[in-house]
Design goal:
alpha/beta, globular
């Protein structure tokens, strides 16, 4: 009897162990490619309504602007966009978790009605380090992303004792939406190491993968490569993402070289940030390359607004509207910055 109990106990331990390993495993390349083969050519944009300066203003109850989202995603649908990448923020969840999830669901309903899938981003190392909930600042004239905020802010980023709150945030959102077909994939961490953090973001990056694996949603998990010099980050992100994502704001020759290089990973991949006109990253030069290789493509920005991303990075305060916009496609009234660009997008997405 003792031997039987011991054998049963060992078997239960083995089953629990194998279940844990299965739950935490990264998708196989076969699984990732099968998922990608079931997608259309993915083309879209990074999206925030023109009425929001940052993630907080987009998602807080007082400023959640469904009318503008409805209108602007209609424009996205009209030109053939079928995916948007949208940033969340931990502070919105900390202040109002149930309300935040309801607003996420509302956003997904609007996007889904337009036949648009969503990529959600959890963490972000870019721009202002000290986010606060409540009323957000007004834009600084001419300053690119003057009010965008990191998630988490610097204090929480550097204080691992505060991370149990972040774990609860990530796992709650993932658990709530882990089987939601309106969500294309989860982008766990935007540009780790940016904002001067360098290697200090690696522990948080590793933890968010661990937290996400504890839920193991049905959608793929990814963190995009963004700087070739960050070799430790790049290696980790490429080997731990179910589906590879990357950012490229360089010219088309550089883009094509990166696409050929990424093919060696034998996993599907999509570019979740590109298009900076004065960097020679444009729709006319890049979208045909993405379509040639059937690589998903999401440009930065959609409607010119409070984020000020028509202005280039590091633009000084007081800069007047540039003749050549840096990012964005439409003015707030729906007028395209460049009619020829919109015509090209429609042509390549078979909307014309």
């Amino acid at each position: 009897m003792h031997l039987i109990k011991k054998a049963v106990s060992s078997l239960l331990f083995l089953l629990i162990f194998l279940s844990t390993v299965a739950q935490q495993r990264i998708w196989s390349a076969k699984q990732a490619n099968a998922w990608y083969d079931n997608q259309p050519w993915l083309v879209g944009c990074n999206y925030i309504p023109n009425t929001a300066i940052n993630q907080l203003e987009m998602w807080q109850a007082e400023t959640f602007d469904t009318a503008t989202i409805q209108k602007e995603l209609g424009w996205a649908q009209d030109i053939g966009f079928n995916v948007v990448r949208v940033y969340l923020h931990n502070l919105v969840w900390q202040n109002d978790p149930e309300g935040f999830k309801q607003r996420i669901n509302s956003f997904l309903n609007i996007a889904d009605a337009k036949k648009i899938k969503t990529i959600f981003v959890f963490f972000d190392d870019c721009w202002n380090k000290d986010p606060h909930p409540g009323i957000q600042p007004e834009p600084k004239k001419g300053v690119h992303n003057s009010g965008w905020v990191q998630s988490p802010g610097e204090h929480m980023h550097n204080d691992s004792l505060s991370w149990p709150v972040l774990e609860k945030y990530v796992t709650d959102i993932l658990t709530t939406f882990k089987k939601d077909k309106r969500i294309l994939l989860w982008d766990l961490y935007n540009e780790p190491g940016n904002g001067g953090y360098q290697e200090t973001s690696m522990p948080l990056l590793k933890n968010i993968f661990k937290w996400a694996w504890s839920v193991r949603p049905s959608q793929p998990l990814s963190v995009a490569t963004w700087d070739k010099k960050l070799t430790a980050y790049n290696s980790y992100q490429l080997t731990h993402s179910d589906v590879i994502t990357f950012h490229n704001y360089n010219d088309s020759a550089n883009l094509e070289a990166e696409i050929r290089m990424l093919k060696s990973n034998q996993r599907p991949f999509l570019c979740t940030e590109y298009m900076a006109r004065t960097n020679n990253s444009r729709f006319s030069s890049h979208l045909p390359v993405f379509k040639k290789y059937l690589v998903g493509a999401l440009n930065w920005g959609f409607v010119s607004g409070k984020t000020n991303t028509i202005y280039p990075w590091n633009s000084p305060e007081g800069t007047t509207e540039p003749t050549l916009w840096f990012h964005d496609v439409f003015r707030p009234d729906g007028t395209p910055f460049d009619e020829k660009e919109v015509a090209l997008i429609k042509q390549l997405t078979n909307r014309k």
